[in-house]
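Following up on my earlier thread - several people asked me to post the actual chain instead of describing it. Fair enough. Here it is, all 408 residues.
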Amino acid sequence: MLSGKNILVGITGGIAAYKACELIRMFKRQNANVKVICTPNAFNFVTKLTLQNLSQNEVYSQEFEVLEYKPEHISLAQESDIMVIVPATANTIGKIANGICDNLLTSVVCAFTKTILLAPAMNSGMWQNKIIQKNIEKLEQNGYEIIGPEEGFLACGTNGIGRLCSLEKIFQRTVDILDSKKKLSGKKIVITAGGTIENIDPVRFISNYSSGKMGIALADTAFKFGADVVLISTVNVNRAYNVIKVKSAIDMQNAVEQEFLKADCLIMAAAVADYRAKNIYPEKMKKTSDNEISIELIKNPDILQEICKKKSSQVVVGFCAESENLVKNAEEKIIKKGCDYLIANDISRSDIGFSSDYNEVIVLNKQGGITKLERSDKYKIAEQIFEVIYGQERNIQDNREFCTSESC
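Reply from S.P.:
Thanks for posting it. Predicted structure:
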């Protein structure tokens, strides 16, 4: 099942560290190549010799005990397909969430560009601490996979939530993550994100409230699923995949047209300004005594509509933001634009959409099918969007009775 996979197991200083030994054996039984990194405190609970025998590899702990020319925190990160940290203590979670690299394990995490799975285990009071929960939320928002603790008898002698989840769950989630990398393997996915900026003068501009979070979540997810990703973004993004920084609608159109030629799928998640200033003032416009000022605007190109005219075998996905009549307006737009899918979100709701980490959308396809994706964080929504496009599109039915304008 895991033949040829390189799994990096991180062990931190918690009582559940001894359970990592059996997890290593489970990985080895499935022919995985397992390497282990321990924090110094982990050796208070499990010995280095035990881990070496189980993994059949050197166990790493000290950051500067380098036997090769390559720094360990770089080489271990590059050669591994996934990193599984079990148990993940409150201390290590806090360090990772805040970019602290004070030992080999946290340094490897910082350099790791693939999926990291954390299995927290700690006292129930620690787990329920608001700061710990904020750190967990922060990690999830940045693409970390978290498999939460279970309720049960804890080492401190009390019952509560904080017990390391079952090793079977950790093992299966690891398999699922590694398998998911094949979903979009070989496909080039181009995604746009953020709100375009249209200059009026050197200090003023026309834009919108788009944070780019949905587009970035889609790009991160496509990359996790093995795609060759190009993100065309108005927001500064530092990722392992190709990011093209743009500003205006014209900039975005040029980048999209260039990347679209060799793309398998284009997802237009960016909020492109409908209009731009006809004339951009070279100097700052001075305030006058007049109570009114007029700025002449001209239409920006409709990138989605124009690109749909040029598509051949590519899948084109559009986004629309509506404040009323969500389904009706989306149905009209997918016909007008000519895209294969249209994803509509309701911007009148304060708990989803712009600047929020959560979303709830409906996905329309050109055959008239409608799928509703219930409120969830944007990374979960991104995964479901790809499932609709690539995993379940043959099964999409016209769910109009389920998803009416009132229910959506």
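The domain at 188-395 is CATH 3.40.50.10300 (Rossmann fold). That should answer part of your original question.
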